[in-house]
Amino acid sequence: MSHPDEPGQRSPVSSDAESETELPGSTSSGYWYADLPDAISSIDLLNLLREYRDAKREMRVRTRESMRMGETDLVALRFLVRERAAGRMARQRDLAEALGLTAPSVSALVDRLSRDGYIRRVPHPDDRRSVGIEVLLATDDEIHKTLSRMHSDMLEAAENLTEEERNGAAKFLRGLITAVSRVE
To answer: Where do the HTH marR-type domain residues begin and end (predicted)?
Structure first.
């Protein structure tokens, strides 16, 4: 009779299905306890979050390369699109404040985005002394074309969760936001 600890032998506490089940990003070995599809450790969860962060960073690089722009330019466009969606027209000083840039730096940024055909300067509707920044329709189309598949896949992933799972995910993410907000 062979011993279960010998190479090529299976332990009686582990079946083929149990030993082959492995979560992406899982750090558990399944040596003693079977890896169950729904069982994920706190460490595994944090590792999955890191993988998501890395994948998002890589997506941003691909997006910047696709749109041929730098990180600050992309962040500026995202801010301007959000402002417009909220019914506000941003000014250069709003952009400077949101991005933490100096007035000369934001002026150069707006000049570059305008020259490259992403935005245009227009009279601000609420303050005639100020200049508003308008995102051009072609910019919307390019952003939508570049990111719509990813956004729909992300929405689908969220919609595939049960209400209880979404509540758990929201609780986890809020906890992380609180944790990283405390770091000084």
So the answer is: 42-178
Query: Which residue shows structure tokens 């402002």?
Result: 83
Residue 19's domain comprises 1-40
Question: Residue 95 burial by CB count (10 A; 0-12/13-18/19+): exposed, middle or buried?
Answer: buried
Kindly state whether residues 113 and 138 are assigned to the same domain.
yes
Claim to verify: residue 108 and residue 26 sit in the same structural domain: no
**Residue 35: pLDDT band with limits 50, 70, 90:** low
Please list, in sequence order, all residues whose beta carbon lies within 8 angstroms of the beta carbon of residue 114, skipping any fewer than 6 positions away.
120, 121
Q: Is residue 32 part of a domain?
A: yes
Helical axes 42-67 vs 71-85, angle rounded to 10°: 100
Kindly state the DSSP code that residue 91 receives in the 8-state scheme.
Answer: B
Whether residue 167 is contained in a domain is answered as: no
pTM of whole model > 0.85?
A: no
CA 19/CA 29 separation, integer angstroms: 9
